[in-house]
Amino acid sequence: MYDNKWGGLVSRVGARDAGADFGFGVYNDHHYHLGYFCYAIAVLAKLNRSWAHRFKPHVYSIVKDFMTLTSGQQSLYTRLRNFDLWKLHSWASGITEFVDGRNQESSSEAVNAYYSAALIGVAYGDVHLIATGSTLAALEIRSAKAWWHVPMNSTVYEPEFTRENRAIGVLWANKRDSGLWFAPADWRECRLGIQLLPIVPITELLFSNMEFVKELVEWTTPALKREWVGEGWKGFVYALESMYDRENALKNVMNLNEHDDGNSLSNLLWWIYRRSNDSNEQLFRCSCN
């Protein structure tokens, strides 16, 4: 439903309860949540052209909630609701005030939001939407690598912090936090996972630094020995492991009993085999024919 006061879309439950839907009713995580819808919509619009035409106004309303460039009285939505044109990355916090300012936990979900908006542009042949979404996704990736990813050779943070951490938990305007909103700092698998999910094609660009990928997985792996570590979080660790050790990662993935919401065995297998060698590509072509 449309909120006239703040110029955005909110859920009916969120409009009544500020704590529902992760605070969606008070504009928390709008780009995160709507990004998932945008990805699914882009696929559906590409496959079903009549549906795409019929619901185009509704589709564009979802995109405009977090990614409109129009401002002032001509726009029903807040201009670039989450994206900070000075910092060149998004903030996930909405209209709630915090002592340490704005914050963002998942850099990867932010990337997915703008990437998915660009995919909607592809589905509709909208070059303006493609350009805007692609630009914001690229800037979000650049910022994620600068602030949320912590390679061993990084000089962004002091040496003591860099020695102990390969990823930020939550980045605030006035501080950094090794913990997450839902997990303590020593749950490293959650820190890796929240900076990786969802696993989509653009994930390859977000984690293009193979040296850092290895460092991140090696830093995280000891945490998997804790009791009651969620199988879904393990899947994200193995997904990154597959970028440099496909055989071992595949074995680990096939031993999982469950997967995180928004992930699946088929998605992990697609990710693992997306860089097939020539023989596998030939086998795939033959099986399809």
TrEMBL record:
Q: What is its EC number?
A: 3.2.1.39
**Similarity comment text for this entry:** Belongs to the glycosyl hydrolase 81 family.
What reactions does this protein catalyze?
A: Hydrolysis of (1->3)-beta-D-glucosidic linkages in (1->3)-beta-D-glucans
Keyword presence, Cell wall biogenesis/degradation: yes
Please give one Pfam family short name.
Glyco_hydro81C
Q: Does the keyword Cell wall biogenesis/degradation apply?
A: yes
Q: Which domain of life is it from?
A: Eukaryota
An MF annotation (GO) of this entry: endo-1,3(4)-beta-glucanase activity
Q: Which GO terms describe its biological process?
A: cell wall organization; polysaccharide catabolic process
Q: Which residues form the Glycosyl hydrolase family 81 C-terminal domain?
A: 1-271
Which keywords are on file for this protein? Answer: Carbohydrate metabolism, Cell wall biogenesis/degradation, Glycosidase, Hydrolase, Polysaccharide degradation
Q: What is this protein called?
A: glucan endo-1,3-beta-D-glucosidase
Q: What class of enzyme is it?
A: hydrolase
